[in-house]
Automatic annotation (TrEMBL), chain A:
Its main location: membrane. Keywords: Membrane, Transmembrane, Transmembrane helix, Transport. It is found in: Cell membrane; Membrane. It comes from Streptomyces yatensis. The chain crosses the membrane at residues 31-55, 67-86, 92-112, 143-170, 190-215. It comes from the Bacteria. This is ABC transporter permease subunit. The lineage of its organism: Bacteria, Bacillati, Actinomycetota, Actinomycetes, Kitasatosporales. InterPro entries: ABC_transp_perm/SBD, MetI-like, MetI-like_sf. Residues 224-245 are annotated as: Disordered. It is a multi-pass membrane protein. SUPFAM superfamilies: MetI-like. Belongs to the binding-protein-dependent transport system permease family. Residues 27-208 form the ABC transmembrane type-1 domain.
UniProtKB/TrEMBL annotation, chain B:
CDD domains: TM_PBP2. It comes from Streptomyces yatensis. This is ABC transmembrane type-1 domain-containing protein. InterPro entries: ABC_transp_perm/SBD, MetI-like, MetI-like_sf. It is a multi-pass membrane protein. It comes from the Bacteria. Residues 29-208 form the ABC transmembrane type-1 domain. PROSITE patterns: ABC_TM1 (PS50928). The keyword Chaperone does not apply. It is found in: Cell membrane; Membrane. Belongs to the binding-protein-dependent transport system permease family. Keywords: Membrane, Transmembrane, Transmembrane helix, Transport.
Length: 245, 227
C-alpha cells in the first residue's frame, strides 16, 4: 500500500495545510457551509414539523418529501442550480441545495417524534388544562427530543456529505482537495482528502450523538436506570430505514 | 427550426438534443441501470448472510450494525476516492462503494423482518418437522418479505441517485452526462440526464412495489379485508 504511505506524507506536510487551498481554509469553508445550512434548514423545517405533528396531520407529506429527497441525485440538483440564473450569485446554489437536502430528515423525524409522543401523557396534560402551546413546550417537545435530535444528526451528516459534492462544480470545502487531486492525477492527495472528509463526517456524527444524550430533557427527570433502558430503542429508531435518508 | 436553435441558444429543454444524442443517452441510462442492479444484487448477497450471522450471535450484531452505520456516514465522494487505490480507475470502485452503502439499510431491514416473524409460526413449522433451512426459506423469509422489500426499495432508490457521483471517475451512468454538461454549461444535457435519473428511481421503486405485491398475496388480501 504505497498510496497509503504517500497519503500520510501528504497529510504530514505542513505546506498542504496553509494558504487558500490548504486544509485549514477548506475545513473552515466546509464547517461554515455546514452550520449555516443546518441552521437555515432547522429554522424552516422544525417549526412546520412540530406544528403538523401537534395537529396530527401531514404525515404523508413528511414521508413523501423524505422519499422524494432520496430519489433526487444531490449532484444533479447542485449542477442544475449552478446553471440556473442563481449560479451567478456566488455560494447561493450550494447553500440552497444543502438546505433542500437537510430538510427531509428534519421534517420526518420531528413530525414522527411529536406525533408519536405518548398519547396518554398528552391526554393527561390536556386534562390538566394545558393550552396547545404549553402542551408542545412542556410535553411533546421533551418527549420527541431524541427523535428530533436524530433528525438533526442525520441532516448534519448529510450536509457534510453534500458540501463535499459542492467541490465538483467548483465550490469550496474539503471536497476541493479531492477534486484537485483528481485534476492533478495525484492519487495520494485524493486519498488524503478522502480521509479528511470521512473523518470530519464521523466526528460530526459523534458530536451530535453526544449532544443528543447530554441535552435530552428527559434525562434529568427519569431515573438514570430508566433513561439508560429507554435510550437504545430511541436511538436506533432513526437508523431504521423509514427515517434515515 | 426552433428545435435546431435550442442547441445554440442553450435552452433547458431541447428536443433536438434528445434526438441527435439519443444513442449517448441510451448508453448512459443502460450503464446507470446495470451499475445499480449489480450494486443492489451484490449488496443483497452480502447483507443476507450478515443479517443471519448477526441474528444468530449477539456478539456479531453489535460490530456489524456499528460498522455498516459508520460506512453509511462516509460521504460518497470520499468513499469512491478511498476505494480508488484498491481497484484503480474501474467500475468496481463505484459498485463496491454502493454495495457498502446498501448494507446499512439491507442488514437492518432483513433483521427487523426476521424478528417480526411470529414465534407461533416458527413453532408450528418446527412441529411439522421443518429443519432450520426449510424453516428459514419456507416460513421465515416469506413472512419477513414486506420489511425486506421495504429496505430493498429504499436501497435501490438511493443507489440510483448515488451512482451519479461515480462520474468523478467516469463510471457514473447518467452522472457522466451531468458532469459533462456542467463543464460545458450545456443546460439541456444536465436537465435531461437529471430527469432521466429521477425517472429511473421512480420506475425502479414502482417495479419493486409491484414485485412485493406479487410475492405477498396474503398481505394484500388481509389489507383488503380490513379496509
Amino acid at each position: 500500500m504505497d498510496v497509503v504511505a504517500k497519503a500520510w506524507t501528504w497529510l504530514a506536510t505542513g505546506a498542504h495545510w496553509a494558504g487558500p487551498d490548504g486544509v485549514w481554509h477548506r475545513l473552515g469553508q466546509h464547517l461554515f457551509l455546514t452550520f449555516a445550512c443546518l441552521a437555515i434548514a432547522c429554522a424552516v423545517a422544525l417549526p412546520i414539523a412540530v406544528a403538523l405533528g401537534h395537529i396530527g396531520k401531514g404525515g404523508a407529506l413528511a414521508v413523501n418529501i423524505s422519499n422524494a429527497g432520496r430519489a433526487v441525485p444531490t449532484f444533479a440538483v447542485l449542477v442544475l442550480l449552478l446553471l440556473s440564473p442563481l449560479g451567478t450569485h456566488g455560494q447561493w446554489p450550494t447553500i440552497i441545495a444543502l438546505v433542500l437536502f437537510a430538510i427531509p430528515p428534519l421534517l420526518t423525524n420531528a413530525y414522527v417524534g411529536v406525533h408519536e409522543a405518548d398519547q396518554e401523557v398528552v391526554e393527561a396534560a390536556r386534562g390538566m388544562g394545558m393550552t396547545g402551546g404549553q402542551l408542545i413546550r412542556r410535553v411533546e417537545l421533551p418527549l420527541a427530543f431524541p427523535l428530533i435530535m436524530t433528525g438533526v444528526r442525520t441532516a448534519a451528516v448529510q450536509v457534510v456529505a453534500t458540501a463535499t459534492l459542492a467541490a465538483l462544480p467548483g465550490g469550496g470545502g474539503l471536497g476541493r482537495i479531492i477534486t484537485a487531486g483528481f485534476r492533478l492525477t495525484d492519487t495520494p492527495q485524493v486519498v488524503a482528502g478522502a480521509v479528511l472528509v470521512a473523518a470530519l463526517a464521523l466526528v460530526v456524527e459523534g458530536v451530535f450523538v453526544v449532544l443528543g444524550l447530554l441535552l435530552d430533557p428527559m434525562r434529568r427527570r427519569t431515573g438514570r436506570r430508566l433513561a439508560a433502558s429507554r435510550r437504545p430503542p430511541a436511538d436506533q429508531a432513526p437508523a431504521s430505514p423509514a427515517l434515515t435518508t | 427550426m426552433a428545435d435546431g436553435n435550442c442547441l445554440i441558444s442553450n435552452e433547458w429543454i431541447c428536443g433536438e438534443y434528445v434526438r441527435t444524442r439519443g444513442q449517448e443517452l441510451t448508453d448512459a441510462t443502460l450503464e446507470h441501470v446495470w451499475i445499480t442492479l449489480a450494486s443492489v444484487a451484490i449488496g443483497l448477497l452480502v447483507a443476507f448472510p450478515l443479517a443471519l450471522l448477526a441474528r444468530r450471535w449477539r456478539a456479531v450484531s453489535g460490530p456489524v450494525l456499528g460498522l455498516t452505520t459508520i460506512l453509511y456516514t462516509v460521504p460518497s465522494l470520499a468513499m469512491f476516492s478511498l476505494l480508488l487505490p484498491v481497484f484503480g480507475v474501474s467500475v468496481a470502485v463505484v459498485i463496491t462503494g454502493l454495495v457498502l452503502y446498501s448494507l446499512t439499510i439491507l442488514v437492518r431491514n432483513i433483521m427487523a423482518g426476521l424478528a417480526s416473524v411470529p414465534e407461533e409460526a416458527r413453532e408450528a413449522a418446527r412441529g411439522m418437522g421443518y429443519g432450520p433451512l426449510r424453516l428459514l426459506f419456507g416460513v421465515e423469509l416469506p413472512l419477513a418479505l414486506p420489511a425486506l422489500m421495504a429496505g430493498l426499495r429504499i436501497t435501490t432508490v438511493s443507489t440510483v441517485s448515488l451512482t451519479t457521483v461515480g462520474a468523478i471517475i467516469g463510471y457514473g451512468g447518467l452522472g457522466n452526462l451531468i458532469y459533462e454538461g456542467m463543464r460545458s454549461f450545456f443546460k439541456a444535457e444536465v436537465l435531461t440526464a437529471s430527469v432521466l435519473c429521477v425517472a429511473l428511481a421512480v420506475v425502479a421503486d414502482l417495479l419493486l412495489l409491484a414485485l412485493q405485491r406479487l410475492l405477498t398475496p396474503w398481505a394484500r388480501k388481509s389489507r383488503k379485508g380490513t379496509t
